[in-house]
Structures are given as structure tokens and as C-alpha cells.
Amino acid sequence: MPIRKLSQDVINKIAAGEVVQRPANAIKELIENSIDAGAKSIKIKTKKGGLEMFSIEDDGCGIAMEDLPLAGVRFATSKLQEYTDLKDIGSFGFRGEALASISHVGHLTITSKPASQQVAYKLSFDGGKANGEAIPSAGKNGTLIQVKDLFHNMNMRQKSYNPNETFAKIADVIRAYSIHYEKLNFSLFRIDKSQTQVRSWNLPDRKTIIEKTFSKEVSSNILTSKLTDEEIGVDGEIFFTSSVYCGKKFILLIFINNRLIESKQIKQIIESIYEDFLPRGSRPWVYINITMPGRNIDVNVHPTKMEVQFLHDERIYDLIKKKMDMFLIPTKTDRTMSVVPTFLSNHETSVIDLNESRDSRRSDPPSLDYQHQMVRNDNTSQKIDSFLANIEEIRSGNNENKPLQQQSTPNKKTPDSPDQKKSLKRKFVTNETINGRAKRKNCNLRSMMLLYDEICGNKDVDFKNLLDTLIFVGFSSSTNIIVQSQENLLSMDFSQLSEDLFYQIIVRDYSNFDVDEFETPIDIPSLLQLSNMPPEKWERLLIALKNMREMLVDYFGIRIDENYNLSGMPKILDNYRPEFNKIYKFFEELEDTNWNEEGKCLKSITKALAKFYSFSNYHRDELEYLREVMENTVFPIFKSHFFMPQLSDDFSEPVKLTSLPALYKVFERC
Ligand SMILES: Nc1ncnc2c1ncn2[C@@H]1O[C@H](COP(=O)(O)OP(=O)(O)OP(=O)(O)O)[C@@H](O)[C@H]1O
Ligand SMILES: [Mg+2]
């Protein structure tokens, strides 16, 4: 057959068929137009899975009457002028193609009213051309787009679609946008069934939207993590179900620079992460939200805009994998073992596989293979120390009190459900001090209550979930400790977390600290000479300390006399004394304290104390003593009383060193 040029009509239809592959693509384009128009609410209605009719109504800026004739014309847009604008494009639209394409495969009617216009105007389009002129019509501020008989001129395509399936795809798109645009109100109404299928109106946060648009099962099993790589300007977050969740359908919502996209690579990565430990037939639920500089992403790759290309893709995939690995692996054993024997226990051991009921493939009795997954996940269980002589002397301080471990039972539950969070909060305000004594005084100082509220407002629930699984193992360097989280060994810098812990204890137990009296009082001016504080600031600090000495001893257990001598510091934890020979560092921290404002002053003293008592720079000679403190005091309190951490941006997250299965592979051969 000779080569002939296709007619414009055929060209347009082919192009339109690529943009509008099914009703869900058209609806996605229209939602994006509404968001570009600044809409706050977007209502979608469908009939016969969108094939007979769909409409979308928004309360955005509207289209002026004089612009209406161009809205449905190919390559007419209000969003892009020059090609170079594309690299910084902030809108979804840029081609001026969506509405025209829809009008090539369906009957399109636009009714629109900008707030400045008295009435709405209505104009219909077919084949990329307006049918006559816009006529006045009833209509609210915003835009209503109606599409009838989609694919009326593409017989094969119309027949090949099943309305239930096309509707399911529409619902998927709307759920995805409801979750991503948590502040916008979306609704999807199925006219032929008189049913509202998705509704995200006025829901308070993303987790509730997930619950309402998907299910409680998904929302209550969600783990979250930040996705940040400052070097390449990537920021974002990931919400993903724990290994306990077994969905029927793999839901993966990926938004890059607010665009809903599909990515085979990310899909494969996530499948491979979950494949190790989800039972066959079970699927995860994942939402990824990444932003990056506009110049690093090419959005003009595919007619449906569902594919994008971006720089540093491998690095971003690695970041996703690393974050998911870190949080998912600890939950893995939750699901596979409910009884976790210790290696050293003489008792009979048993393993109960919770998958059994869900997964009939695993009908074999538990075999010895499971031993490589058996980990001690409870500080109170028997361990090698019980066979060794106890370390009796705890530094120079007297140590009459029982180890805290015996006084309080660690709370093993993770605070991820609202009920658990509440109970944690209750625990935090209990009438006992952290050290287990009944409170002598119950002070309700407003400034301290505000600090307390701030702590309760910390939201790093996902990280707290990880913290709750931790068991102290040992020290790996002068700054890092090694912890066990289920079957993984992690290395972490504990200084900031321990500072957070002391801060919370001080806020909670202020006014109730015993004073650790010094044998010889220390002269504060000579301490200041050791510090980095400029001498011109010494006087101001000394006067403030003198004037406030009653408050300092009363609230914080810091005893200072009239002659600027420090004679005692608080016993914040009974079994632990910080390195008092470095006490000048505490005063250094008070350099910029605002002594005139109660709230700021108390916060600054609390912070300085917390920093001084926190664990950092461990010395070789101290390790034995500190190990005792960590195991018997700090980690139990961490589990039982620590509220959400308030991590600063430079916090370096724990690094996974190895895992029990990995070690087993090596040592099994020996
Ligand atoms: N809901 C809406 N509210 C206000 N203006 C709209 C709305 N929908 C479309 N428009 C206007 O109609 C124009 C054409 O829309 P259309 O979706 O066809 O193209 P686009 O959004 O500019 O680019 P793209 O084809 O990439 O989506 C838009 O540029 C915008 O000015
Ligand atoms: Mg558009």
C-alpha cells in the first residue's frame, strides 16, 4: 500500500486515544485541572463506570466567558507560554490537550463561572471544536465539566471495557488524590447505584483519610518514614503497611512533585522487599510522596503523564529501600513468632507461626530452621549476665536502691494506636516519679505544663515504634551504642535520644529530685574559667544563679549558696551520676538563658540539665558502669516512660549492622 498522509481527524483521534485510554485517565486530567484552578472541593459523578457519563464539579477560579471557546481546543492553554517554562512548571497542565482530547472521544460540555462574572456560561465541544457560542447558564462559582458517551466513535474500545472495572480504576485515582491532597475535599458518587463511593470531606489528617477511603486495617498497620536526601534536594515521606497487614490487592500510590505516577522500578523494589515475609497472596499498601527540584524531573514523557523521568533515580530507589528495610524487618518477627525463647534458657521452647491460619502452605511442624530467627526481645529474660558475678560498685555514689528494672515493668506495647498513645500519656502523668517513689509535691506550674504539652505533641510515632523494640547490647565507639531490634543489630548515636529522655524526665518529675550532695562544694566562678563562656557574660549568669537559687534547688535539685558555690546536683536517676568533673559544661549551656521570662528560663535550665546528664563520649574506664546503667535503668525507662522523641534535623538514624539470619549464615558453617 502506498504511503499516504493521515487525515487530521484520524491524527486527532489517535492522539486523543493515547491521552484518554479509559475514563479514569480523563478524570485524572480533570481533577488536575481543578487543582490547577485552586479548587478546595472536587465532586465527581459517574454513570456506567464513566462510559455513559461522568462529571466533575469544582469551586476553583473558573474560566472567563471569553476564554471558554479556546478551552476545548487542542494546544490552547493558560499554563505554559515557552518550552523553557516546562522545567519550572508548577501546574499539572502544560500541553493544552486534555479537554480537546476528551472532546475527540466523547461529548464535552463546560459550564464555568469565575467569581467576578455575574452568571455562568456553558459551551459544548466535539472533535476539538466548540459547538456554536457560549450561552448563559445557571452555575456556581467554579467549573463543571460533563462528558457523555465516551468512546462513542471508537466502537471496539467502548465494547471492550467493563463498567465495573472502569469504575474501580476511577475510584483508585480519586482515593489516591484524596490521600495526597489531604486538605482538599473529594467525593465520588456513582449515579447508577445512588452510592457515594469515596468521600474525604473535612477529615482531619492523612491517616483518617486512609482509614475512610481504604480501611481501618490499612490505617492501623501503617508505618511512616521520611524520605530525605538533602544533597540531591529530595524530600518526602513514605507510608507503608507493616508485615502484619495482608491485603488482597497491591496498592501503590506514587506522587512525585505532586503528580500521580506509575513506576515499574519502584513497584519491583517494593514487591521484592515484601516478598521475603508476606504470605503468598498477601499484598502491601504503600504511599510514596517525593518532591525534588523541578529541573531534575521530566514530566513530558508519556501522553497520560503517568510516567516521568528524574535524575538520581537509583539513589532515590535506594533511599526508599533503606527506609522500608529499617522499619519493616523488626515487625517481621512479630508476625512469625509469638513465643520467643532465649538461647540460654533451659526451658522447652516453642514457636507459634501466626501465618499458619492464613497460609495453608505452612502446615509442617516448626523445624530447627527457625532457630536463626529466635531472638531475645525482652530485657527481663535470662541472659548471660546472670551467670557472671554482679558488678556491685556503681561508681562512687551509694547504690542502695534496687535496680529500676525491678521497680517498673517495661511497657512492651508500641504506641501506634490512639488508645496506646493515650495510655502512654497517662503513664507520663502518673503520680509516681520516674524513680518509682510517690511524688512528694505535685506542682502545676503553667510554664512546665506547657513544656509537658510540647512533649506530648511530638509526633514521631514511627520512630518511637522502633525505639520500643530496642535492647541495649553494648558500646561500639566513644559515641555509638549497639542495640538489638528484634533480629537486627543496629548502631546508633545515643546522645540526642538520651538528652531527649532526660529532658522528658525533668519536665515530668521537676520539684521531686533528691539532691546529690557534693563532699566539697565547687566554686562556680572557677568552673566558668574552664568553660567557653566569654568572661563578660559571667557576671550576669552568677547574679541570676544567686537570685534564683531557691527555685533552682526546689524545682531542679541544683543547690547553690550565696557565695556562688555549687554543693549539689539532682539525682535524676537513682543509679546514675554524670561526670561531675565536667560540670562547667552545664553552666556553659546557660549562657544565653533569658532569666526574665519564666517559660524560657525553665526550658533553658531543663535543656542544659538534660544535655549534661545525657550519654555522650563514653570513656573506656566507664563502660562497665555505663553498661549497667543502660541495661538496668535507662532502657527500661526508655520503654516504659519515654514519650515521642523530638528529633532535630541533624539526628543520624540508627544504622543496621547485621541481622540474626545474616549471622546465622556465617556461623552455621562453623
Ligand atoms: N477546572 C478548571 N478550572 C479553571 N480552568 C480550567 C479548568 N479546566 C480547564 N481549564 C482551562 O482550560 C485550559 C485547557 O485545559 P486542558 O486540560 O485541556 O489543558 P492544560 O491543563 O492547559 O494542559 P494539559 O493538556 O497538559 O492538561 C486550561 O489551560 C485552563 O485554562
Ligand atoms: Mg489539564
Automatic annotation (TrEMBL):
- Localization of this protein: Nucleus
Q: Which UniProt keywords apply?
A: DNA damage, DNA repair, Nucleus
Disordered: annotated segments: 353-382, 396-428
Boundaries of every DNA mismatch repair protein S5 domain copy: 210-329
UniProt feature, compositional bias: Polar residues: 396-412
Q: Which CDD domains match?
A: HATPase_MutL-MLH-PMS-like
Please name the PROSITE patterns in this protein's record: DNA_MISMATCH_REPAIR_1
GO cellular-component term (any) = MutLalpha complex
Keyword Transcription regulation part of the UniProt annotation? no
**What processes does the entry annotate via GO biological process terms?**
mismatch repair
Q: Name the domain of life this protein comes from.
A: Eukaryota
- Residue ranges with Basic and acidic residues bias: 355-364, 413-422
Q: Pfam families from the entry? A: DNA_mis_repair, HATPase_c_3, Mlh1_C
Query: What InterPro entries would the database entry show?
Result: DNA_mismatch_repair_CS, DNA_mismatch_S5_2-like, HATPase_C_sf, Mlh1_C, MutL/Mlh/PMS, MutL/Mlh/Pms-like, Ribosomal_Su5_D2-typ_SF, Ribsml_uS5_D2-typ_fold_subgr
A molecular function annotated in GO for this UniProt entry is: ATP-dependent DNA damage sensor activity
Annotated family: Belongs to the DNA mismatch repair MutL/HexB family.
What name does this protein carry?
A: DNA mismatch repair protein S5 domain-containing protein
User: What is the originating organism of this protein?
Assistant: Oikopleura dioica
Classification lineage: Eukaryota, Metazoa, Chordata, Tunicata, Appendicularia
